[in-house]
Amino acid sequence: MVVSLLLGLPAAVGLWLVSGGRAMPVRAARPLAAVTAAATLVLAILTVTGADEVDRAWLPELGVRWSFGVDGISVPLVLLTAAVGVVVTLHAWVELPAGGSPATFLGSLLVVEAGALATFTARDAVLFLVAFELVLVPMWVLVGRYGAPHPARARTEAALRFVLYTAVGSTVLLLGILLLVASAGTADLRELAGGAGAALDGGTQLAVALLLVVGLAVKVPVFPFHTWLPPAHTTAPTAGSVLLAAVLLKMGTYGLVRLPVATVPEGTATLAPALAVAGAVGIVWGGLVCLVERDLKRLVAYSSVAHMGFVVLALASGSETGLQAALFANVAHGVVSALLFVLVGGLKQRWGDVDLAVPRPALRETSPRLGFVLVLGLAASLGLPGLAGFWGEVLAIYSAWAPAADRPRVVLLACAVVAALGAALAAAYCLRVAGIVWAGDRPDRDAPRTPDTHGVEQVLLGVLSLGVVVLGVAPMLLLSTTADAVARIGGGP
């Protein structure tokens, strides 16, 4: 019952705001969306603590069931999604983009949240795909209608690229799921992970794994399927960028764990070298681009490509440590990216743009609270010990250095070395940003001072900063949650 409310509440309110409530004034729409997101967070907590589930026939002729529930793998992502839902709806008091009805904007945020929650709780492979696709249209609306107003052509192109890439990836994913379900005779993800998928012959497993990995790689995104992400981030409103980085990318990596890794382990092991190389190249490529990127929001987007590379590399290792690293890095990146995008969105509101080539006063002098949050977010992004970004990256490199016995050790060792170099690049570009924005190494004494953070924005930045510190200081809060579920997947030593 609780999990049904968890999924139904944001979906129902969001769809009503998008359709029947479009004319609702902003003074009513904002509180309604925020209360709905807060209630959804409470329901998420009740769902994960009470292990609530629903399981009934949906399409009995096809063997598809209406089945939702949580386990150790999905619990952190359900809580992250619900918390991010509160962040983006409250952020409407800080920034409410033009382009259409405020109710439609807020409703789209809630529908995206509902789709993500359904994705993380679905226990049927076909149901997973349906939920996976539910977020496509509202996210397209957020990017294409409420994105940066100028230039309009760039906004339209970014939205179309997002839709086309995701649709093509989803088509490949659909083929993989259909082949898996038809070959194994069941769509139940628990049965598939329990041995029904592993019992398939090697050729079928490889074909299924290839389709699933390629389809999901677009959503992650894995190099070289990442080119839709920077334009979408650059164009999207701040709330859209937060959802995109903290939630939508996690749907791709969660799908990799739940589908190919758990259901067709032999086929996934065959693809592991290519997956590891793609992850390592993405880490270095993202870092190199960030070293020269001028637009701060686009820089944070490219850093997401690099961070997702660590997740993919950890999954390719095939070990339990690698799975733990991937799941931890997934959640950590969600919190860190949300913090950085809220911060960068605030700076863009104040400055009009976030071009690093424009001289501005040092943030540490004009806006000490914003400056502190910037340094904290950059430190977490570069993997400083004691902050959220550290554990996922160091465990990912370790897992590649000591992979499972069925993985090509030489390839993964080389990828571990490349990933370590990529971590050094992260330190370089983060220090570059800190030098320009925080220290102000090119100040313009006549430029207007940057107003410091206050009110709702200060609360949001404070809560996200606390999450970054807690995950870094007490990583076992998350690692212990996922440990049993990772062991059941059957990772190597």
- The coarse overall form would be globular
The mean pLDDT is: 88
What is the structural class? mainly alpha
The number of helical segments is 20
| CA-based gyration radius | 21 Å
Which sheet architecture does the biggest sheet show?
A: 2 strands, antiparallel
Element order: H for helix, E for strand: HHEEHHHHHHHHHHHHHHHHHH
Low-confidence stretches: none
- Strand tally: 2
Question: Beta fraction of the residues?
Answer: under 5%
The first-to-last residue Cα distance is: 38 Å
| Widest sheet: strand ordering | 1-2
Portion in helices = over 70%
Family: Belongs to the complex I subunit 4 family.
Membrane topology: Multi-pass membrane protein
Protein name: NADH-quinone oxidoreductase subunit M
Organism: Phycicoccus avicenniae
Question: Would you write up a description of this structure?
Answer:
The structure is a single chain. The protein contains 20 helices and 2 strands. The protein is mainly alpha-helical and 493 residues long. The chain has a domain at 265-493. Strands 1-2 form a two-stranded antiparallel ribbon. α14 runs antiparallel to α17 (388-401). The mean pLDDT is 88.
